Amino acid sequence: MLLEQLVNGITLGSIYAIVALGFTLVFGVLGIINMAHGEIFMVGAFVGVMTTSVLGWPLWLAFIASIVVTGILGYLLERITLRPLRGKKGVSHLAPLISTIGVSILLENLSHHIFGAGNQPFRSSFAEISIEIGSITIYLVQIVIFAISILLMIGLTIWLSKTKAGKALRATAENLETASILGVDTKKIITLTVIIASAMGGIAGILVGMAFNSVSPQMGLSMGLKGLAIIILGGMGNVKGAMAGGLILGLSETFLVAFGDSGYRDAIAFIMIIFILLLRPQGIFGSKIAEGR
């Protein structure tokens, strides 16, 4: 029982971590919380449902379709709702946040209109493949989810530290004007960042559908708030912190449901934030420098 809950907690935490990585990328570069990220994640999940259940495409094509659709949504989000506000005189620093909230409401309402308010089944034969290890049953999809989250974290870390585009992104995150003077195309870098973050949300959406066998238009709000909680928990703008925070939250929720009262499952994320902020205001992996920025 304990080991099974541990596996379930790691699986849930890995999904949370992938969602939080998208939040982390956008915050690290733009310094804003993208509240539309949860709904973009939800759209990715519904793309998975449409491609596998309705069109009958294989799962790998569903992933590609979700990445493409959510990447396009990320481009439109940056180009239409974020770029016009950036650097404009007299615009409140809260304006981009309000703008992304508006996009999130729009996407959720569109999903309600198109798919209805109820849960939609996500049918995948891959999700039914399991491995018996003694008395423990581990589903192959759980292994895949954990592997993808680790690969995304490692790949993102290497890309940020080793590649030219990654270094340009870090320079843009450090100081937009200085990076522009040094020859970095900051508009292109910012757009690329939002596209990558959104595509990661699309990947997470399909993984959630596979893990829980259903998706709904309401899933974006809950996942978005938990993603926000995770980046505060792990440290704002920190890739490793997003991964660690996701795993901590996933394990905490799973064990609370298994051995405590499931009614407090969603509240635990924000209870943990309160304690973390009291003990370490910058988050587990955050730095005081980042906090000052």
Automatic annotation (TrEMBL):
One of its GO terms (molecular function) is L-leucine transmembrane transporter activity. The keyword Cell inner membrane applies. It comes from the Bacteria. Pfam families: BPD_transp_2. It is a multi-pass membrane protein. One of its GO terms (biological process) is L-alanine transport. One of its GO terms (cellular component) is plasma membrane. The chain crosses the membrane at residues 12-33, 63-82, 94-116, 136-160, 189-212, 267-285. Belongs to the binding-protein-dependent transport system permease family. LivHM subfamily. This is Branched-chain amino acid ABC transporter permease. It comes from Lysinibacillus telephonicus. The lineage of its organism: Bacteria, Bacillati, Bacillota, Bacilli, Bacillales.
